[in-house]
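Appendix B, record 7
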Amino acid sequence: MGGDIAMQFSAIGFRHSIPKPTWYNPLKKGKGAGITHVDLAITKGEIIGLVGTNGAGKTTLLRMISGILPLEEGNVSQAGMELDVRTLRSMVGFMPEQVRWSSQQTIRQTMTEFAYLRGCSVQSALDVLSLVGLRNRIDASLDSLSQGMRQRLSLAVALLGTPEILVLDEPFNGMDPVATDAFKRLLRSLADKGISIIISSHHLIELDLLADTIALLHRGQLLAHGTTESLQSSLGFQQMTELVLDKMIPESLAKTLNILDYVDAANEHRYVIESGRHDLLETLIEKKFQISTWRVVPPTLIELLCAATGLDRETIGMDVEQSSMIPLRTIGGEEE
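C-alpha cells (predicted):
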C-alpha cells in the first residue's frame, strides 16, 4: 500500500459500558465489548473495505475513526502530529447506516441547516449537491426522494466542510443495482480527487469490486489489512479452480482433491477445488468427463475472513456472539 498517509490510528481501543449490577450497587457499570489495540493507516485517495461478521466491531470502529466515540486507548495522528477529537471530527465526514429523510422540507433547506451546523457557507453546501448528482432536485421534498437519492443526500451532508476522509456505514442498503452502480462510480470519483474512503458493507461482492484494500475485523480485532492479493499471500491462501462437469467426480478421485464447494443443479456438477493437482484435467478427459467450465477463481471476502479467523463459512455466518477478549492470531478484542 503505497502513497501518502492521510491519517494514522495507533493502538486505538474503546469498550462499551454495560450494566453489571451487584446487590449493593444495582447501577454499577462494567466494560463490555468494543475495539482493542487496532492499528490502521489510511492512505490518501484509498478506498478501504471493512469486512466482518455481525458483532465484529465495524460500526464501533467507524464511529471511533469519525470522532463520535472517544479513543480510550491509543491515538490518531497526521504527518506525525497527534490530533485531538475536535480536529479529527473536522477532518472526517461520517455517513451513518440509516438516516430517515422524511418531511416536506426540501433538499435546499436541509443542506442550509447542516451548513450552519458544520460551520461552512450555505453556497458551499449547495455546491456539494452538484458533486453527488442532486443539483436538479434541490427543491424536491425529502418525502419524494428515492432510496438512492436519500443515500446521496446523506453523502452530501458527510461531505460538508471538505473532509479528507469519508466514513460510510452500509451505504448500499436499500439501493437497487442501478443506483448502487451509480453510487460506486461516485465514490470512485471522490477517491480520484484524493479523498480517502472507508466503507463497511454486507454487500461483499460490491465491496470487493470497489475497494482498493480490505480490512478484516473480527471480535474487535483487526486481523489483517491489505490488497486482496497481499491478503491471499499473508494468509497462505491457495489458488482455487472452478469446474463444471456433466457428472459427479467418483469418490476415489474426490479423495485426492481438496473440494471447497460442490453444487449439483440442472444436470451439472459444479466444484470449487484447491488448485495443485496438475494432472486433474488430463484425468478427467481420460474418464470421459464433459467439462463446460474450467477457470481459476480468486477467493471471496468471506473465504479470506474464514482464513484469517480459522473459522468455516457456516460458523462465520452464525458468529454473532460476544467474545471474552480471547485474542485471534496477533490482536485481541471484540464489539457491540
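Remarks on this record: The first strand starts at residue 5 and ends at 19. Confidence is low (pLDDT under 50) at residues 318-336.
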